[in-house]
Model the fold of this input.
Amino acid sequence: MFEYIISGFASVFHPTSFILMVFGIVMGIIIGAIPGLSGSMGIILLLPLVYMLPSDVALVMLCGLFCGSMYGGSISAILLNTPGTPSAAATVLDGYPLAQKGKAGKAIGISSFASFVGGLISTLCLMFIAPELASIALNFQAADYFSLAIFGLTIMASASGGSMVKALIAGAVGLLLSAVGMDPITGNPRFTFGSYKLMSGLDILPILIGVFALSEVMVKVNSKNKGLTFDEKKIEKVVPTFSEVRSVLKVAIVGGIIGVLIGIIPGTGGAIACFLAYNVAKKISRNGSKFGTGEYEGVAAPEAANNGTTGGALIPMLALGIPGDVVTSVMLGALVLVGVRPGPMLFVESPDLVYTIFSGMFVIQFLMLGFGFLFARISPKILKIPANILMPIIVVLCMVGAFSIGNQTYHIWVAVIFGVVGYLMKKYGFPGAPLILGVILGPIAEENLNRALIVSGNNVSVFFTRPISLAFLLLSAFSVGLTVYNRVKKDRKEA
Done:
């Protein structure tokens, strides 16, 4: 293990890897700070570059962007009273009142420190939990992998926030899209409609670009709110003092631990973690009654929690191939593009790659702390980028990304079509993450379903007689049942 860690740090500090990792962090902070953009869109915009890089370099850059975007959301939450990402929603409660008191710089500094603490805790948990989880998953057989794929779809659907039925429909459409192409068992074409371009199936990249990036541009273009204006706050005294650090350290550690625990659960993410940590911090803090009026602890707890989810969300993605949230579901698609298949075999076949990720995550936290203090002074200028300049740039990058797959305009058309599909899904309340997860997990589910049935002689009881498979199916039923129960209970209470 020690030699892999040394090798991982050597890979991270290679000039190319280090420069691109820094680039990913900076891009992530900028994207996270701009309301309406997100870490998933940032990853999509970088996919053309990822496609051409070695897998270890691409992964540390994506991890840098993931962590940077999680922190960046706090900047607009503090300065604009508008969270840049959903994960910074609780930061608004005390961050903006601090800015109104003239303490915007110090609030961003506390956010940077808390993000560092939460990210460091999540990285340590990632290093120690993911390998153990992967070693357990090495005992999985075909039936277990099929049930795991079903569990991944149901947990993402049940935790998507809107209608569970719509989320399940989106997941089912994703499974249907994954079936386009050649049947892996018989070799017969499916859903190709006579088009030779569909014989190899639908590439994940144009679908990602359309559903997440182009659809968001369409939403912004049709939005009545064309931009956000704010009074530029005077940013000064960014770096917190020792006494201020000591006053928020306890809630930052608690928030980081909560973030890791929430991040490990697939389909949850930073938005849930930040509010849970905020509520816990409010109860354990001496100044809990003052939360909401501008308390540093009210900024530290949610920021440590949402950054704690980064390593937590990577644990099931790397060890099981099941993304922990929307951003890691997009990252999963990026890994598939560069030829990396997350799962327990990744720890056996490519341990050097895994420990490069661990080492990269560790270094990223320290870099992000420094960039957080630096960006505090220039963040107001980032937030003033006009939408009529930003959106065309995003569209151009999306088109270049789609075209870069095979240098064919066909992929651009696919991206545009799924952009319209994604826009309609947003308009009518259908989440995009289950659809993408269906496209990614569909081939895994189909391959292992066929393999399990062939080995068992078409005996479907194999999915219920194997303990691991049965456990995942029961967890799937429980997640769906619990969501239905909570929705019915909520409707009755409102009625």
In short: The radius of gyration is 22 Å. The chain has a mean pLDDT of 80. The longest strand covers residues 181-182.
